[in-house]
Amino acid sequence: MATPAPRLQAFRASVLHFVDDPALAGAAAVVVHEDGLLVLTDGRVSALGDASALLPGLPPAAELTDYRGRLLMPGFIDCHAHYPQTDVIASAGEQLLSWLERYVFPCEARFADATVAQETAGFFCDELLRNGTTSAQCFATVHPQAVEALFGAAEARGMRMTTGLVLMDRNAPPALCVDAELAHAQGEALIARWHGRGRARYAVTPRFAATSPPRQLALAGRQFAAHPGVHLQSHLAENRGEVAWVAELFPGARSYLDVFDRFGLLGERATYAHCIHIDDADRRRLAATGSAIAFCPTSNLFLGSGLFDIDAARTQGVRVGLATDVGAGTSFSMLRTMSEAYKVGQLGGFALSPWSAFYHATLGAARALRIEDSVGSFAPGCEGDFVVLDPRSTPLLARRIACASDLEERLFALMTLGDDRAVEATWVMGECRYRREAD
Ligand code: GUN
Ligand code: ZN
Asked: Ligand 1: which of 104, 256, 303, 324 to mutate, judged by most atoms within 8 Å of the beta carbon?
């Protein structure tokens, strides 16, 4: 039987992607085609260049989509979010530990019900797509059915999703504490069922050091080491009260990071959210082990946690990806997240460039999660995930962009004034998964 002809798709737009970190490699890190053409073959990137160069050679069977006047870039990657916290986003008045007790734990207990989990996971994935996010690393809850629900929702939409069973066995309501051995066995079953199935990847997920006894952290370290390609995600040094509490719980540790280090929880594909209250020794250890930081600016401002020092992390060689941290984070939009990242930098005396902001939401995030061979750029063979941004999506944005003299200024206006309204379409592996309704 003849093999079917490959599906060829071409998209004409202003195309932007990164091939390196602009803070380190400068202008050579950015590729821009003002009138560009992105070509996908069977959902993967096969060519990128100027439209004038590529259009004449495009076979007649190719499906051509015209996005001229819009900016097309790799789909955003959210390095850290909590899908079960969708319904407690914007819960007022507390800092981390009391916010968890008052809002988060009661909400997460509801995910014992698979119907709640499935409905929420579907809404969450749709909201990511509406905001141009095509890949994410997310927390579920302690319930295996909640992990199943998110993997299932992402698979139905073709999205790249990393998630795992949240591990908690102390300092939480009884309904959310699961015996370490049982949770480990549940995790093994989920890894066997989901890790490497399509675009699903499993992450060993100890919530934070305060909710896991040493035995559970040791089992987590064993699970992380036992399964090649499995990820690890947790929280680290977000809030001063939390840091002091962890020091009491683990009196022998040099630092909060050292607690995780002792249990084998650092390494490539390990991501720690926040890392606000860390020191240079911690940064050196994160860099040496290849562990990454998820920078969550809207969350850090909302919970009053502190100002993450992105410059110190980067200059000391730590991989950093941007993240919403929904529901402590206040927006699903990576554009809103970039804007708040800029403001956090300003309060710390550092001006984040728009190049860096977009890098940390695309290739930088992919590098943090170690998925840069698959997504985050338009390198040949990468999965065809992209977002189409409309620089005229609101009257104010259109007016400001009309005054911009170059792309850098346009990008800065887009990240400062843009939100979900700027997302005209989101494509996942060559399939349109979100299209903004016509005005
Ligand atoms: N630390 C432990 N759990 C959480 C959580 O759910 N959200 C945030 N922001 N920090 C945490
Ligand atoms: Zn979080």
From this structure: 104
- The ligand with the least distance to the CA atom of 171 is 1
- Tell me the residue ranges of DSSP E strands in 229-353: 231-236, 270-274, 292-295, 319-322
pTM: 0.98
* pLDDT at residue 439 in the model: 64
Contacting residues for 264 by C-beta, under 8 A, at least 6 apart: 218, 221, 222, 224, 225
Q: Rounded CA gap, 251 and 254, in Å?
A: 8
Q: What is the mean pLDDT of residues 306-333?
A: 98
Ligand 1 in reach of 82 Cβ (< 6 A)? yes
Q: Enumerate the β-bridge partners of residue 386.
A: 74, 427
Give 2 Cα–ligand 1 centroid separation in angstroms: 53
- Report the mean per-residue pLDDT for the chain: 98
Backbone angle region of 36, left / alpha / beta, with phi > 0 → left and psi within -120 to 50 → alpha: beta
Whether residue 299 is predicted with pLDDT greater than 80 in this model: the reply is yes
Question: Span 52-64, mean pLDDT?
Answer: 97
pLDDT band, residue 387 (cuts 50/70/90): very high
Q: How far does the centroid of ligand 2 lie from the alpha carbon of residue 138, in Å?
A: 8
Residue the block writes with tokens 């015209």:
66
User: Cα separation of 272 and 237, whole Å?
Assistant: 9
Residue 26 φ/ψ region, left for φ over 0, alpha for ψ in the -120 to 50 degree band, beta for the rest: left
What is the Å distance from ligand 2's center to 44 Cα? 31
pLDDT digits (tens, 9 = 90+) for 343-372: 999 999 999 999 999 999 999 999 999 999
pLDDT of residue 2: 77
Give just the sign of the alpha carbon dihedral 54, 355, 420, 201: positive
Ligand 1 pocket test, pick from 96, 139, 170, 324 with the greatest ligand atom count within 8 Å of Cβ, gives 96
pLDDT at 4: 85
Tell me how far the alpha carbon of residue 365 is from its chain's centroid. Answer: 6
Strand partners, 167: 206
Best residue for ligand 1 mutational test, from 78, 82, 138 (most atoms within 8 Å of Cβ) = 82
Verify whether ligand 1 is closer than 6 Å to residue 207 (CB atom): yes
Pair 19, 5: CB distance under 8 Å: no
- Model confidence at 97: pLDDT above 80: yes
